[in-house]
C-alpha cells in the first residue's frame, strides 16, 4: 500500500537539526574529548591529568615501547599503507605471520585479519547467512553483531540476555523453517562485564544444527590460562565454532580477526565483502599486533596483575560501598547503574572534576544509564584506592 503523500520539504537537511535537538533533550548527546600523549593508566584529557578508567587497553600495551618499535620498523620496511585490498596489492608477509599467530593462540586451523573488529563481524555474518536463513542474537550484543545480522537479510531474533531456556524454546519453534541458523553472542559483554554461557550455547547449537559465532573482543589477551579468551576460559578450545575478535583492545593495536577452520577462512576470503573490498591492515598496525601477541604469551604476569587489580577494586567496593549497584561481572569491566542519563552525566562530571576519567554510558548504547569502569594491568593500587574514595564522596 503506498504511503500518504507528504509535503515536499524546502530544505531536505532540516531534519538533522531537529534530530540533534531531540538527542540533546534526552541527554544522549555525545562529543569527542581530546587525549594528549601516550595512552596509559593516566592520561592528559583536555589539558587535565586524570586516572584513566575508560580504556580497553587492558594490558597496557598501546603505549608499550616494543609495540612502537615494531610499528616503526614495519613502516621503514613496508611504508605507511598497504595500498590495496589483500587480494590485489595489499597483502604482506606480515599479515600472514599475524594470522598464523592468532590461529596458534586460539588453537584453530587458521585465521583471517580484517581492518577492524567491526568489519570482521559485518563481513563474516553477511557471508555466512542470507534471506533463507535465521539468526539468534543476544539482546546485549555489540552493535557490529546486530548490524551484521540486519545487513545479512536473514530473519533476525533477539533472545533475552544469556537466557538459554528462551533461546532453546525459540529454536525448537523456528529452526526447522530455515536453511541455516547462526547464533551470535559476545563472550564478554562490554557494557556489563559478564560472560556468555558458552558451554550451554555450544550444546544448544549442536542440538539444533546451528553455527555459533562468538565475539572475543574483550576477552582476547584477558581471559583463559594463556590469554586466548573466553573459549579457553570455559574449556571449549577445539570445539566447532567461529571466533571473532579485535586487535585494538588488550593487544593495543588496530584491526580484527576471525579464527576457525581452514575451510571457513578459505570461504571468507572469497565471500566476506568487508575483507575482499577493503584495503589491508596497515603494516604498522599489523606489526604492533604481532608484537603484542608475543608479549601476551611471554609475560603472563601482565594478565595476573590485571586480575589482581580487578580483585582489589571489587574487595574495596564491597567493604566501603556495599550499596553501590554493581552489575554482575567476571571481567575487568565493572559498571554501576544510575536512574537516568542525567544522573549518569552528573556522576561522570563529578568523577572527572576529581581527576577520574570514567564517563557516563547512556542509551541507546545501553538500556539503562551507568558508569563504566575499565581496569588495566598498569593501574597502581593508589589509582584504584583514589577511585573508591571519589565514589564514596559522590555516592
TrEMBL record:
Keyword Transferase recorded: yes
GO biological process, one term: biotin biosynthetic process
Protein name, UniProt field: 8-amino-7-ketopelargonate synthase
Taxon lineage: Bacteria, Bacillati, Cyanobacteriota, Cyanophyceae, Nostocales
Pathway recorded for this protein: Cofactor biosynthesis; biotin biosynthesis
UniProt GO MF annotations: 8-amino-7-oxononanoate synthase activity; pyridoxal phosphate binding
SUPFAM superfamilies documented for this protein: PLP-dependent transferases
EC number per UniProt: 2.3.1.47
Role summary: Catalyzes the decarboxylative condensation of pimeloyl-[acyl-carrier protein] and L-alanine to produce 8-amino-7-oxononanoate (AON), [acyl-carrier protein], and carbon dioxide.
Domain of life: Bacteria
Alphabetical keyword list: Biotin biosynthesis, Pyridoxal phosphate, Transferase
Amino acid at each position: 500500500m503506498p504511503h500518504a503523500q507528504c509535503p515536499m520539504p524546502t530544505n531536505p537537511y532540516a531534519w538533522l537539526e531537529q534530530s540533534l535537538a531531540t538527542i540533546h533533550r534526552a541527554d544522549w548527546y555525545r562529543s569527542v574529548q581530546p587525549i594528549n600523549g601516550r595512552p596509559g593508566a593516566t592520561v592528559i584529557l583536555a589539558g587535565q591529568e586524570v586516572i584513566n578508567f575508560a580504556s580497553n587497553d587492558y594490558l597496557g600495551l598501546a603505549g608499550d615501547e616494543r609495540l612502537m618499535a615494531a610499528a616503526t620498523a614495519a613502516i621503514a620496511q613496508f611504508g605507511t599503507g598497504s595500498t590495496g585490498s589483500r587480494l590485489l596489492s595489499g597483502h604482506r608477509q606480515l599479515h600472514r605471520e599475524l594470522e598464523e599467530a592468532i590461529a596458534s593462540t586460539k588453537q584453530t586451523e587458521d585465521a583471517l585479519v580484517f581492518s577492524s573488529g567491526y568489519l570482521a563481524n559485518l563481513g563474516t555474518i553477511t557471508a555466512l547467512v542470507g534471506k533463507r536463513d535465521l539468526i539468534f542474537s543476544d539482546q546485549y550484543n555489540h552493535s557490529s553483531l546486530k548490524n551484521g545480522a540486519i545487513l545479512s537479510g536473514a530473519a533476525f531474533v533477539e533472545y533475552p540476555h544469556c537466557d538459554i531456556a528462551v533461546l532453546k524454546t525459540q529454536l525448537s519453534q523456528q529452526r526447522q523453517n530455515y536453511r541455516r541458523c547462526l547464533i551470535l553472542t559476545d563472550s564478554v559483554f562490554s557494557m556489563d562485564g559478564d560472560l556468555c554461557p558458552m558451554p550451554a550455547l555450544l550444546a544448544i547449537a549442536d542440538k539444533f544444527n546451528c553455527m555459533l559465532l562468538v565475539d572475543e573482543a574483550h576477552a582476547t589477551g584477558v581471559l583463559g590460562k594463556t590469554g586466548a579468551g573466553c573459549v579457553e576460559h570455559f574449556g571449549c578450545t577445539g570445539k566447532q565454532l567461529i571466533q571473532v575478535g579485535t586487535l585494538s583492545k588488550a593487544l593495543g593495536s588496530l584491526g580484527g580477526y576471525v579464527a576457525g577452520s581452514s575451510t571457513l577462512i578459505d570461504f571468507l576470503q572469497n565471500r566476506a565483502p568487508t575483507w575482499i573490498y577493503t584495503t589491508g591492515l596497515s603494516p604498522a598496525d599489523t606489526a604492533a599486533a604481532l608484537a603484542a601477541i608475543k608479549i601476551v604469551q611471554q609475560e603472563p604476569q601482565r594478565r595476573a596483575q590485571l586480575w589482581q587489580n580487578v580483585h582489589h577494586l571489587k574487595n574495596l567496593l564491597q567493604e566501603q560501598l556495599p550499596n553501590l549497584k554493581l552489575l554482575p561481572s567476571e571481567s575487568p569491566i565493572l559498571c554501576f547503574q544510575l536512574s537516568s542519563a542525567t544522573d549518569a552525566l552528573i556522576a561522570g562530571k563529578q568523577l572527572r572534576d576529581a581527576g577520574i576519567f570514567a564517563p557516563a554510558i547512556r542509551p541507546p548504547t545501553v538500556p539503562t544509564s551507568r558508569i563504566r569502569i575499565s581496569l588495566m594491568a598498569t593501574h597502581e593500587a593508589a589509582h584504584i584506592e583514589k577511585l573508591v574514595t571519589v565514589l564514596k564522596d559522590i555516592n
